[in-house]
Design goal:
six-stranded mixed sheet, about 25% strand, ABC_transporter_ATP-binding, ATP-binding, ATP binding
């Protein structure tokens, strides 16, 4: 069964010669959450803008729910809701009227019962008669989501949905997104908060310089590219890593009390048992050991830096 979004060899080159996207292909399944990561200028917003019909591509095709975004654009756009980065709301309009207006733009008939459900799910019902200028930044972002959901889209794009939102509100927004997924909405988000992608996404796509480096399930990505770090706390500080243990990539902390060892947890032999045995044979007493998995941020930085290194070569 085909995904709800099919992207084939999508490219975008601007008049000045800037190539924002280069032969991007991917398929997004119905009901999943996919996070698009990449540095500023990588092409994330351009990709979203093309799918939503805001930017015309110079090559390739995009289908949403089987509808080509260029030849069958009305049907494609009815399936899409977009929450942009910028907060652009009519300051003197009531929340409920703003949401009603957006529904009307998509040709939807009045349905206040549905709009009430949307506003309640976003904790906005009590603010329905407030002017949007009276709302906090977090509440304004919720209004943007309500407007994007007003016509019952099957696909929701969130472009930096929690930019400028404090930690507490960010976590509330994550709960909102999870609720939308349970309702069957497919969600594509871009974010600079890698913690956000790690928390919510089923799959991660990494874009750099207009190219899609990879798209993988989050757990698979973490397993394939993530490393584990073993920290060994010594009973007595060391002046240096023993010469007998040289060549293993061991890093001694400045105070001499901790040895760091990076290893691949998927390897047949991690070398941990041998390392601890060798320390004991050197007459060194270990007080404690702990392990830590690489974060998505570390994985992302590694991927982007590898891509830069290939270009330099």
């Amino acid at each position: 069964m085909a995904g709800i979004i099919q992207i084939d060899n999508l490219s975008k080159e601007y008049a000045g010669g800037t190539r924002a996207l280069s032969n991007v292909s991917m398929e997004i399944e119905e009901g999943e959450i996919i996070a698009l990561l990449g540095p500023n200028g990588a092409g994330k917003t351009t990709l979203i803008s093309i799918i939503c019909g805001l930017v015309v591509p110079t090559g390739g095709t995009v289908r949403v729910g089987g509808h080509d975004i260029r030849t069958d654009w009305r049907a494609a756009r009815r399936l899409i809701g977009l929450v942009p980065q910028e907060i652009a709301l009519e300051p003197f309009e009531k929340v409920i009227n703003s949401v009603r207006f957006t529904r009307g733009l998509y040709g939807g008939r009045p349905d206040d019962a549905y709009l009430e459900k949307v506003l309640r799910s976003l904790t906005l019902w009590d603010k329905r008669n407030a002017m949007t200028r009276e709302l906090s930044g977090g509440m304004k972002r919720r209004v943007l989501i309500a407007k994007a959901l007003s016509h019952r889209p099957k696909v929701l794009f969130l472009d930096e949905p929690t930019a400028g939102v404090d930690v507490a509100l960010r976590r509330e927004m994550w709960q909102v997104v999870e609720g939308l997924r349970k309702d069957g909405v497919t969600i594509i988000l871009t974010t600079h908060y890698l913690e956000e992608a790690e928390e919510m996404a089923d799959r991660i796509g990494v874009i750099n310089k207009g190219q899609l480096l990879l798209v993988k399930p989050k757990d698979e990505l973490m397993g394939e590219f993530g490393k584990k770090t073993l920290t060994i706390e010594m009973d007595e500080p060391l002046d240096a890593v023993p010469a007998e243990l040289a060549g293993r990539g061991l890093i001694l902390s400045q105070d001499g009390r901790r040895i760091r060892y990076d290893y691949d947890s998927r390897a047949e032999r991690t070398g941990i048992a041998r390392l601890l045995g060798d320390l004991a044979r050197q007459g060194l007493t270990v007080r404690d050991v702990s392990t830590r998995q690489s974060s998505l941020e570390e994985v992302f930085i590694s991927l982007v830096e590898d891509d830069r290194s290939e270009d330099a070569a």
